[in-house]
Amino acid sequence: MDRALRLLARSRCLSRVPASAPGPGPGSSPSGVSRLLLRPPNAARMASQNSFRIEYDTFGELKVPNDKYYGAQTVRSTMNFKIGGVTERMPIPVIKAFGILKRAAAEVNQDYGLDPKIANAIMKAADEVAEGKLNDHFPLVVWQTGSGTQTNMNVNEVISNRAIEMLGGELGSKKPVHPNDHVNKSQSSNDTFPTAMHIAAAVEVHEALLPGLQKLHDALDAKSREFAQIIKIGRTHTQDAVPLTLGQEFSGYVQQVKYAITRIKAAMPRIYELAAGGTAVGTGLNTRIGFAEKVAAKVAALTGLPFVTAPNKFEALAAHDALVELSGAMNTTACSLMKIANDIRFLGSGPRSGLGELILPENEPGSSIMPGNHRAGQCHSWEWTRSRSFSSKTCLLEFSIILGTGTCTAPPFQDVFVGHLRPGVQGTSPNKVGEKNSSSSIYSDSHTRKCMIILSLTIQSQESFRTGCESDQHGLKKNDLNRCLLVHILLWVLVC
C-alpha cells in the first residue's frame, strides 16, 4: 500500500513538469532530478527562467522580471500601451507624490486598525518611493487608460513587494502585504491620481519654479540698478521715440517677473485642496469618517505645504480647474519671458551694423563662415521652449473641445495633464459618462513638463544676466543719441 502511494505521488509530480522541459543529461544527478520534480509548479518555472517570476492577474499568468518590484498589472499595461518609450514615462515628480500619499494613507489606516507591522512596512517602502530610490521600477508611460489607474497600481505593486521584501516574504506573493487590500486601502485611482497631481504641482512650484523666478527677478533688478544712469532712445514700432534710461527699460522686465510670481502664488490655494478620501466617485465609499482630513494633514506635515482636504470631492474628482488656473499663470509667465528675450536679442543685435546697445555674453563659438557672428543662444532657447509650452496648451484645449460633452464624475486624460501643465479638460468622455476622469495622466505629464521648461529658462537666464548683458556705450553713441535728445528737449520747450 505504501509503495502504491509513493508511485502515485511520483506520477503527479511528473505530470506537473512542462512537456518542453529538458530531461536529465549525461552524468546528471538523480537526486537533483528528484528535487526538481518535487518543487511546486511556480518554482519549476522560475528554475528554468531565472530572470523572471510568474505572477497572475484576472486574465492569467505573466512573466515579471525578478529584479523589479512591480507586478502583473504593470506588465499588462506595458503590453497594452507601447507608446512613446522611456521618454514618455510618467514624470518622476508624480511618482514621488504618490509615495508621499501612500505613506500618509498607511499612517492614517494604522490609526483605523491596519496591522502596525504591515503599516510600518508600507510607510518605509513609500518613503523610498518619495525619495526617488525606486524610480527604475516605474516603467509606465503617460499614454494609458487616462485615469491613471495603471500608474496607481504600479505604485501599489512596487510598495507592496518592497514591503514584502522588508518583512522577509516572497516577491509577488502578495503576502503579508497586499497591493489592494493594504497599500490601496480606502483609496481609488480616481482620487489618488488627482491628489498626486496636486502634490506634484505644489512641490515643484515651491521647490523649483518660484525660487528660479525669484533668482531671475533679482538678476534683472540688479541690472536695472546698474543701468540707471545710462540714457538711451526709446522705440515704438521699432522706430526712434523719446529718451529713457536703460535702467527704466529693464525695470519693466523686473515688474513682469514680479507679476509672474504673484500670479503663480495666487493660484496655489486651490492646488492645496486634495481629492484623497473621495474614492471612486466622490462619495467617500469604503473610507472611515475623518480619513480625508487626516490624510491631507499628514501630507501637509510631510511636505511642509498647507494642504487641506477638498471641500467638495465631486468637483475635486470631476474637474481640474485648479491645475488649469495654475497652467494659465505659467502660460502668462512664458509670454513674459518671450517678450524679455526678444527685447534683449533685439537690443543686442550687431555688433557692427545692428543696434548694439547691449553686449550679450558669448557662451559658444560663433559662425565658422561669418567672423564676429555670435548668436544670442539663451534668447533663442527661451523662444523655443516657450513655443513648446504653448503647443502643450493647444493640445489640451483640443482635448477639452473633443471631450467637453455630457457629465462626468472624473474627466478624462488625467495622466497626460501633469506633464504638459496646460489648460486641460474638465470635459467628459462620451464613452464613460458618469464614470471617471480619463485624462489625468496626460494632464500630469503636461504640468510637470511646463514647470521644468520655465524653471530651466529662469535658471540659465539669471546666470546669463549676472555674468553678461553689459551696456555698450559706443553702440548708444553710434545711434546719434545726443542729437535725438536735443531735438526732443527743444520740442518739449516749444510746446511748453
UniProtKB/TrEMBL annotation:
Enzyme category, top tier: lyase
Q: What is its EC number?
A: 4.2.1.2
Its Gene Ontology biological processes? fumarate metabolic process; tricarboxylic acid cycle
Q: Where is this region: Disordered?
A: 17-36
UniProt pathway: Carbohydrate metabolism; tricarboxylic acid cycle; (S)-malate from fumarate: step 1/1
Q: Which UniProt keywords apply?
A: Lyase
One Pfam family assigned to this protein is Lyase_1
Q: Which domain of life is it from?
A: Eukaryota
Positions of the Fumarate lyase N-terminal domain? 60-372
Quote the catalytic activity from the record: (S)-malate = fumarate + H2O
Annotated GO molecular function terms are: fumarate hydratase activity
Under PANTHER family, the record lists: ASPARTATEAMMONIA/ARGININOSUCCINATE/ADENYLOSUCCINATE LYASE, FUMARATE HYDRATASE, MITOCHONDRIAL
Which function does this protein serve? Catalyzes the hydration of fumarate to L-malate in the tricarboxylic acid (TCA) cycle to facilitate a transition step in the production of energy in the form of NADH.
Q: Which family does it belong to?
A: Belongs to the class-II fumarase/aspartase family. Fumarase subfamily.
Q: How does it assemble?
A: Homotetramer. Interacts with H2AZ1.
Q: This chain belongs to which protein, by name?
A: Fumarate hydratase, mitochondrial
Organism for this UniProt entry:
Sus scrofa (Pig)
